[in-house]
Design brief:
The chain is of the alpha+beta class. The protein is about 50% helix and about 20% strand. The protein is built from six helices and five strands. It has helices at about 1-20, 20-40, 45-65, 70-90, 95-115, 160-175; strands spanning about 90-95, 120-125, 150-160, 180-185, 195-205. Helix 3 packs antiparallel against helix 4.
């Protein structure tokens, strides 16, 4: 009897799933939100890495005079590797305008590849609180560029589950860091839409584009 009640319960749920479009949309929305949650928890990721970048630059400079000591060369090399890894995640172009253009083009291309239909895309620069002076563009180069700048993007797109998941996956796999600040699903609109706020850290290298 207990097994029959459980079986009947599953049959009822299956019937509701097949006949209730709002239920299916709601569950798909939950899946999208859970998928994006891992990105949302890193909202302060770029700010923290910006501070760490400046700290590692200072450490590398302090290690140079004592590089002849046996233990310091290993530490200096590790600091350089970490610094290079962090700098690889920053969007570096000859100027910030070009960085914005590259970011915008990348977003449009990624959305198109993922199957998302973009309705609107706007970019803006945000003043970075406590911005540090110019930092080396690479540990071995000696070149100096401007301080990093936060660039935000807000995009609106038609809400399609597969396309949204593919787009968020591409953000997570990007070699250069892209943080999701906000994801809002507008189910009441026709068609349903998604509004996404993104953030990157960009820096002008100070070199002319070749």
């Amino acid at each position: 009897m207990r097994y029959k009640r459980i079986t009947d319960g599953f049959e009822v749920l299956r019937g509701q799933w097949a006949g209730n479009v709002r239920l299916r949309l709601g569950l798909m929305s939950i899946v999208v939100i859970l998928w994006a949650y891992g990105l949302l928890v890193g909202a302060d990721f770029l700010t923290d890495r910006h501070k760490l970048l400046a700290s590692l630059s200072e450490q590398a400079a302090r290690l140079a005079p004592v590089a002849r000591e046996q233990q310091w060369p290993v530490r200096a090399e590790e600091a350089k590797r970490q610094l290079a890894a962090l700098q690889a995640m920053v969007w570096v172009e000859s100027d910030l305008g070009l960085a914005e253009a590259r970011f915008q083009d990348w977003l449009r291309a990624t959305a198109n590849t993922s199957g998302m239909v973009l309705r609107d895309l706007t970019l803006a620069r945000v003043a970075a609180a406590g911005a540090t002076p110019a930092v080396p563009s690479a540990p071995e180069s000696g070149r100096v560029g401007t301080a990093p700048q936060v660039i935000t993007a807000r995009l609106m797109a038609d809400l399609k589950r597969e396309a949204m998941l593919a787009f968020l996956s591409e953000l997570a796999r990007s070699d250069r860091a892209v943080v999701v600040d906000r994801l809002m699903l507008r189910m009441a609109t026709q068609p349903p839409t998604a509004e996404i706020d993104l953030r990157i850290l960009a820096r002008a290298s100070g070199e002319s584009a070749k």
